[in-house]
Amino acid sequence: MEINGQLALTVLMGVFLVAVAAWLTRVENWRSYTPLASGGGAYGQESGHAHEKPGGLIRWFTTVDHKDIGMLYGLYGVIAFLVGGAMVMIMRVELADPGMTLISNTFYNSLLTSHGITMLFLFGTPIIAAFSNYFIPLVIGADDMAFPRINAIAFWLLPPAALLIWAGFLIPTGDIIPAQTAWTMYTPLSAGVGNGNQANAGVDLMLLGLHLSGVSATMGSINFIATIFTERAEEVTWANLDIFSWTILTQSGLILFAFPLLGSAMVMLLADRNFGTVFFAGEGGAILWQHLFWFFGHPEVYILVLPPMGIVSYVLPRFSGRRLFGFKFVVYSTLAIGVLSFGVWAHHMFATGIDPRLRASFMAVSMAIAIPSAVKTFNWITTMWNGRIRLTTPMLFCIGFVSNFIIGGVTGVFLASIPIDLVLHDTYYVVGHFHYIVMGAIAFAGFAGLYYWYPIFTGRMYQRKLGKWHFWLWMVGTNITFFAMILLGYGGMPRRYATYLPQFITLHQIATLGALLLLVGGFIWLYNFIISWLEGPVIESGDPWNLKEDGLYTAEWEWFDRKLQTKITDGGEQQDVATDGGHESDESDS
């Protein structure tokens, strides 16, 4: 009976997909694509085939304009960030007490799993795609992305991916409960062998959702590579390609090699779970999964961190009053990180008993990859050295990025040493190190970009004081939370445990206090962005940051200024302008 039900559901889904494809072919002629005349060329190209965008929701469901898709990615990423943040706040409040007081062990493990996957796959990669979709065509002088329709399809794969990943929380049934595998999905736990909890359909739905997100990222990476290679304006050569585009190009190459491997491993895991295969269920299967997963998993860290490095390399010089120091070395270090990232995966496996000679080689490469990261760090510091520093909110987040990245990077070098890793592996030290990078660095760089380009995509300026409150609450909260975790790791507190010994209670409560500061800062940021979008001062200048004074005016602001002037010439309402007129450059200079 159960088999018949599953067969009927499969047939129904097949019919549904065919119906969707048939409907889409009737919507318009897929063979012809005419880019919008307002489409984004930073150097003023016009396609000559202008057509007006539809209004309302239809515009957002059917758009192929790279700027609209960038906005959709941004909205999606913010929603995922809020969901992932809510999950971890429940966990941290629970951890304020050694015993289980608010939630069950099972629910804690579900939150732990979904928080990691949500932040990495549903927030990290899409929020980077938001920046790159909106600004890459503008800064390289392209009319749009190379494949606008593929660009749209890549985004629309993500909402169903999120629903599948969160299905265990959304579907109120005993047959589907949230996955409790942790974000690494280690076998045999995730294979459901001898574990009834992991044999449920919630794990299968999560794996399918992850697979969809991987397909989306791969399609996007192909698009960015094609766009940067083929759609650049004549004025944009490899020699003067901006640093953000270099990092996106490198990231796209990493995605192209890493994500298909993860997809293949998850297909094998799904086969083990549902069709009786033994890819990971047999002898050595657990080690095989770790090799396949971490061959993707460590490049994934650089997939997430390279574009934020590009944002900092792009934004930080604007408020230092000078160009990026050692531009070529920053580019070379980016490419070096991209290559070396595929040679370090087994440092996650030092404690598994693999061959000591293999461990030694991976230790050497893991330490070597710190060198190009250090090159970038020294270049950022030297760019600020003797510069005309303006402590705007974007600049504060850039400086916060650099300082947190140093702490996260140095703690990571210790983990690359085999003897130290054997002591600290699977403790809260690893959690603290990792979150210094993903929260203290990647998220800080993301907010530097959001504040810096806020005038372009809203046409208004945010409230400057609230922006600085956001920064300081997050800077203090990040260091309180994650440094406490590093100390917990030194004390021997294992990670991923919902209960703990009483001697760890003080540091856990300190970490929870820091998390509450992050929560307050997050509310301030959300309020500031929404209210300023609706009521903030309208931008009236194409140079809201006074970049022309230092000769640092860039292509996206030129496009912005032309758009503003066109609106004024056409007699449009200034409120409708996608430009910006409040000068946060008036913020404190030092």
UniProtKB/TrEMBL annotation:
Which molecular function terms from Gene Ontology are attached? cytochrome-c oxidase activity; heme binding
Q: Where is this region: Disordered?
A: 568-590
Sorted alphabetically, which Gene3D superfamilies does this protein's record hold? Cytochrome c oxidase-like, subunit I domain
Keyword Isomerase in record: no
- Alphabetized UniProt keyword annotations: Electron transport, Heme, Iron, Membrane, Metal-binding, Respiratory chain, Transmembrane, Transmembrane helix, Transport
What membrane topology does the annotation report for this chain?
Multi-pass membrane protein
Enumerate the spans annotated as Cytochrome oxidase subunit I profile domain.
60-546
Q: Which GO terms describe its cellular component?
A: membrane
Feature: compositional bias, Basic and acidic residues: 581-590
GO BP terms in the entry: aerobic respiration; electron transport coupled proton transport; respiratory electron transport chain
What the record says about family reads:
Belongs to the heme-copper respiratory oxidase family.
How is this protein named in the record?
Cytochrome c oxidase subunit 1
Q: Which organism is it from?
A: Halogranum rubrum
